[in-house]
Write a structure and sequence with these properties.
Keywords: Heme, Iron, Membrane, Metal-binding, Monooxygenase, Oxidoreductase, Transmembrane, Transmembrane helix. There is one protein chain. This protein is an alpha+beta fold. It is built from 21 helices and 9 strands. The protein folds into 2 domains: 88 residues, no CATH class; 389 residues, Orthogonal Bundle (Cytochrome p450). A 4-stranded mixed beta sheet has the order 1-2-7-4, sandwiched between helices. The two termini are 48 Å apart.
Length: 533
């Protein structure tokens, strides 16, 4: 996330006093030392404000953020409590590591914490216009979110796309079989799978129908997904946290890089939207019906928006090209990296726990029996698989939920000022030892007789968020994750590559960032003989 990236930048420049920023921060350090010698101590609650660790001038508490931000914040919560204040540059942040105050933020006071705020990167990618992920709680946000749910993310629409998931997962299985007994990069395969399924759902049809065309299409989509996601998570702006140092964004080349990234992403999005408009202008909503090379993927979100816009649906008649582009980009940012990460972390934990992998494989294979393929209707009978995935999401929660207070408010007995950003650290909530038995261990059995679900109905387990901004794509993502993992566990046995020790997986699983590029997961598949039909 951005905070972790800034933390590393701060540490780098502190180690290099030759740079202008390094000199500035070194001066700040000297000021801090004088302050400490004069008796300065960590700021604690003098009444109603949450306690706070001591901070450096200018940069605030950035130096206390570790590479694994979730774990670093959890460590601070052990010292300062489940709610504590930080200042990241000039931005006040309240870190929440407990389920009860998290629910107060997202449910009890959701009208106050209904906005996420924006970053320099998000403003560039979304052209400073409305979107779903970062827009405030306004009419546009409600309209477009409702549209995405009704046109793409509802249970009925998710079910209608079952053949898309089956085709794309079958393609992934074929690729793995062609590399049998050689290590495969599951991180990369999961990312490609998630992006292919999402784009077919959003666009309504594969762009290319022959092998060459489809390959070029997938490469374009992957490039779009990677560039847009990295722009949000990796491009760190001083302007966002220390406005007085915003000129450094130009000096470091960030402004130029962000502008180039936004232009590239916009051009690719315009390309795919142009194609949808051309198809609609030919009165062929959903694709070329004369093309028998692939099954029709339905109208697709973009086609539905264009069709409703053409019909003058209230609220959509004024949608601009930028608005439509932003909706597609929202789907990419919300639906690719997080879904791929859920599959990756679950497979990594299974590789670390071979007895659990064996148990879930036995369940999957007993359900499938002698059948030569898996259908999504089979998944409902795989209860232990569902527990395995829930446990993977508990141990590797994909996000820190951020909400900005519109007015002052009391949370957990503490008074938070207007403008403060509440960070809900799901990693800490989902590993709270007062709630979870042996929280650092991968124990899917804990979910067998529990009522936890993904709807955020309790205070201890909500991997997809809480309240009105809960992820609307829960069904879309989980159906994909369950089917993909069931296929890999049914058709393959999995081993660590030669020379890779279990300790390497321990290190991988200790990381909290969901990016598939940070630490790829490589495992060796041992194909099972395909049952005769």
């Amino acid at each position: 996330m951005a905070a972790g990236q800034i933390s590393r930048i701060v540490r780098t420049v502190l180690d290099d006093p030759r740079t202008l920023v390094g000199k500035l921060l070194c001066c700040s350090t000297l000021i801090l030392l004088l302050f400490r010698l004069a008796g300065g101590k960590a700021k604690r609650s003098g009444g109603s404000i949450p306690p706070s660790p001591w901070r450096l001038p200018i940069i605030g508490n950035f130096h206390q953020l570790t590479a694994n931000v979730h774990q670093g914040l959890d460590a601070l919560s052990l010292k300062f409590g489940p709610m504590f204040m930080m200042r990241l540059g000039s931005v006040p942040v309240c870190v929440i590591s407990s389920g009860e105050p998290a629910r107060e933020v997202t449910n009890t006071h959701d009208a106050i914490f209904c906005n996420r705020g924006s970053t320099k990167a998000s403003r560039a990618l979304f052209s400073g216009k409305n979107d779903i992920l970062f827009a405030p709680d306004n009419k546009f946000w409600k309209l477009t979110r409702r549209l995405c749910v009704s046109a793409l993310l509802s249970p009925t629409n998710v079910q209608s796309l079952h053949h898309v998931r089956e085709e794309e997962v079958a393609q992934m299985v074929t690729v793995i079989r062609s590399n049998q007994y050689q290590a495969v990069d599951l991180s990369d395969l999961f990312y490609k799978l998630a992006s292919s399924i999402l784009f077919r759902a959003v666009l309504g049809k594969k762009i290319g129908t022959d092998d060459e065309g489809r390959r070029a299409s997938n490469e374009l989509r992957m490039k779009l997904a990677v560039q847009s996601t990295n722009a949000i998570t990796d491009l760190v702006s001083f302007e966002d946290f220390i406005p007085a140092l915003s000129w450094l964004d130009h000096l470091t080349g960030l402004n130029r890089k962000l502008k180039k990234t936004a232009q590239t992403v916009h051009a690719m999005l315009d390309q795919v939207i142009d194609e949808r408009e051309e198809i609609q202008s030919g009165n062929n909503i959903g694709g070329d019906d004369n093309d028998n090379s692939s099954r029709n993927d339905g109208k697709g979100l973009v086609n539905i928006i264009l069709e409703l816009q053409r019909k003058g649906m209230t609220g959509l008649d004024n949608l601009t090209r930028i608005d439509i582009r932003n909706i597609v980009l929202d789907m990419v940012l919300a639906g690719v990296s997080t879904t791929a990460a859920a599959m990756k972390w679950t497979m990594a934990e299974l590789a670390r726990n071979p007895q659990i992998m064996k148990k879930v494989q036995e369940e999957v294979r007993s359900v499938i029996g002698d059948k030569s393929e898996i259908r999504e209707c089979d998944i409902d009978r795989m209860k232990y698989l569902k527990c395995v995935i829930k446990e993977g999401l508990r141990m590797h929660s994909p996000i820190i939920i951020g909400r900005r207070a519109a007015t002052s408010v009391t949370i957990g007995g503490f008074k938070l000022p207007a403008g403060v950003t509440a960070w809900i650290n799901l990693w800490a909530v989902h590993r709270n030892p007062t709630v979870w038995d042996r929280p650092s261990e991968f124990l899917p059995e804990r979910f067998l007789n529990a009522s936890y679900n993904f709807k955020g109905q309790d205070q201890v387990y909500f991997p997809f968020g809480l309240g009105k901004r809960i992820c609307p794509g829960v069904d879309f993502a989980m159906t994909e994750v369950e089917y993909a993992l069931a296929s890999l566990l049914c058709w393959f046995d999995w081993e660590l590559p030669d020379g890779v020790l279990m300790e390497n997986l321990d290190l991988l699983c200790s990381r909290s960032k969901p990016s598939h590029e940070i630490a790829p997961l490589r495992l060796v598949p041992r194909p099972r003989p395909a049952p005769s039909t």
